Amino acid sequence: MSPAHGFRGRHVVSADDFSKDDLLALLDTASYFESDVGPRLAGKILATLFFEPSTRTRLSFESAMHRLGGSVLGFADEKATSRTKGESLADTIRMVECYCDAIVIRHPQEGAARLAAENARVPVINGGDGSNQHPTQTFLDLYTIRKATGRIDGLKVGFFGDLRYGRAVHSLAKALLHFDVEMTFVGPSMLRLPQELREKIAAKGRLSKEVESLDDAKPLDVLYVTRIQKERFPDPSEYERIKYAYRLDRAGAERFGPDLKILHPLPRVTEVATDVDDLPGALYFEQARNGVTVRKALLSLILSDAEFPAR
Ligand code: CP
Fold first, then answer.
1. 2: pLDDT confidence band, cut at 50, 70 and 90?
2. Domains of the chain and CATH, by start
3. Is the pLDDT at 47 greater than 60, yes or no?
């Protein structure tokens, strides 16, 4: 049996909160959830509180819950809630916990998911808080990488794009610290990794290179591309100056050789040319599809006592 039963009732706020054993147990359970596992969460209710736009995270959580026989309530627009009357986030969470068994929250402020967890008696799952963390994106990223390559240890992983504001980058880099990987960071100097995270990765001996040109990042097994996080720029003119600063095209991808796996949390804007999409290693739409499988596994582990056979 999988040891993943330690997930029961647990908050999911930061990738840091999960050990290597936790992560591997979740990935094993997700493999089991590739097949139809039936209505394991009948009678359970998930609340999805989205204070920021989302396509994949909200809809894949909702799809996962429906596929497991549970139900969903929530909102995708804060303007439709009593927050507009001045209700605090803490009070909103105290109300919502009365109506559900678990909460998924996305919020523009760093730390909002932690605050929600501190005020909830039901598990809170962080669906992205500002530039900080997006742990369930990390779970599906790890799942996609392992499914495509058969391993995580021993890989050379490159991050390409907005390393400064990209929460998917921050979460995944933290989780990869549990594994024997070499990390390379590629992007404009203005969008470098936050210093604290950079130091953490370097201290663990996992920082391979920081470069501005993609060609200088070779060789890589995995390239994780992100868009520029326009909504996080304090000064819109800074975004205007840099918005076309980098792009992966087919020729650039092919210079890494046929085995390169290309991931992207999506949405894409201009940073990956559409002619990359039909390369065998372009996994980003498959990655989004895996979001339902991984979130089905996560919700089942958090909301039920069931144990699942390891892969
Ligand atoms: N990857 C991701 O978080 O996508 P959404 O913003 O559409 O949820």
1. very low
2. 3-133+289-303 (3.40.50.1370), 135-288 (3.40.50.1370)
3. yes
